[in-house]
Design a protein that fits this description.
This protein is an alpha/beta fold. It contains ten helices and 13 strands. The active site is at 140 (nucleophile), 310, 343.
């Protein structure tokens, strides 16, 4: 979708003549009452579910959640996935050409926030003639967007589904993001964000950034069960010297594989931009840190889900959201799932988790006649 009208950003800047890449699933009913917006996390995109005929290996990032007969059933709901402004999967972002210079924006792309993304998504809804979403749903950073939707557009959200998320990042989380950004910024191939002109990308920095992030997405128990201290060489076959620090443990091999894969498809400037948006999100800041006050104008019904071993966005953070909503007597369903997979649990198959989401959408379907 192309948008000519300037989008005014929280930073005071604006961007015009931008495009957003979207993907839809299911059929919008005549009343336009069965629409669900699915918001993506850091390294995901508009490609929420299914695969393309010419690329069957490219499976949607939430394919186990969204589709015919799945918890978010596309036989009943019309689902929209939007690639956020500033991302690198088709929407206008740092890789796009700046109309003022004719060169890629690079590090000159304006700072964007979660609230900016929500305002851009609202224009997508307008283009479809959707006045009110049956639900807005997201996990992790996507959950922040869902929460922001319920604050910024309370009259346009029937249900808000927040999974493995938080009302703001802790200092530790911001610190992890900063270490990851530093890895990119210190890569000699970064060239101040203008690496496109050099026909190169800061792969080493991206690899390290992804490795750092991936560690935080898994629980200690999950890593232990997957890898333990398994070696890739024969036990006892120590090298007298290992100047290159080659891979010896299975967990090292796994992290390097994840880092290499990420560096192949993701953009470094986008990583810097999106992690900053994560850091900045704090709807309570304008209310002296009072989340209850920040949520006073909400009117949606909520489903909030956390995972016991998620130490990146711990259950205590989800409970903060629940308490603030209950202070206003909002209708809230809260599920805390004792899954072993850490933060990544929101992307994985867990019958308790999926059955909870399925039951909740059954209730929404009855309300909207889907």
């Amino acid at each position: 979708m192309e948008f000519a009208e300037p989008l005014h950003l929280q930073s005071g800047s604006s961007i015009s003549h931008y495009s957003l890449t979207i993907e839809t699933y299911g059929t919008l009913n005549a009343e336009r009452s069965n629409a669900v917006l699915v918001c993506h996390a850091l390294n995901a995109s508009h490609h929420v579910a299914g695969h393309y005929a010419d690329d069957p290996q490219n499976l949607g990032w939430w394919d186990n959640m969204v589709g015919p007969g799945k918890p978010l059933d596309t036989n009943r709901f019309f689902v929209i996935g939007v690639n956020n402004l500033g991302s690198c999967f088709g929407s206008t972002g740092p890789m796009s050409l700046d109309p003022l210079t004719g060169r890629p924006y690079g590090a000159r792309f304006p700072v964007v926030t979660v609230e900016d993304w929500v305002n851009a998504q609202a224009r997508v809804a307008d283009a479809f003639g959707i006045d009110r979403f049956a639900a807005v749903m997201g996990g992790s950073l996507g959950g922040m967007q869902a929460l922001a939707w319920s604050i910024l557009y309370p009259e346009r959200v029937g249900h808000c589904i927040i999974v493995a998320s938080t009302p703001k990042l802790s200092a530790q989380n911001i610190a992890f993001n900063e270490v990851a950004r530093s890895a990119i910024l210190s890569d000699p191939d970064f060239h101040g964000g203008d690496y496109y002109a050099h026909n190169i990308k800061p792969r080493r920095g991206l690899r390290v950034a992804r490795m750092i992030g991936h560690i935080t997405y898994l629980s200690d128990d999950d890593m232990a069960s997957k890898f333990g201290r398994a070696l890739r060489r024969a036990e006892g076959a120590l090298d007298a010297y290992n100047f290159n620090f080659e891979v010896e443990f299975e967990v090292e091999s796994y992290l390097r594989y994840q880092g290499d894969k990420f560096a192949d498809f993701f953009d470094a400037n986008t990583y810097l931009l999106i992690t900053r948006a994560l850091d900045y999100f704090d709807p309570a800041k304008a209310y002296d840190g009072n989340l209850t006050a920040a949520l006073a104008g909400t009117s949606a019904q909520y489903l909030v889900i956390s995972f016991g071993t998620d130490w990146r966005f711990a259950p205590a953070r989800s409970r903060e959201i629940v308490k603030a909503l209950l202070d206003h007597k909002r209708a809230v369903t809260y599920g805390e799932i004792d899954a072993p997979h850490g933060h990544d649990a929101f992307l994985l198959d867990d019958p308790r988790y999926h059955n909870l989401v399925r039951a909740y959408y059954e209730r929404i379907a009855e309300e909207v006649g889907a």
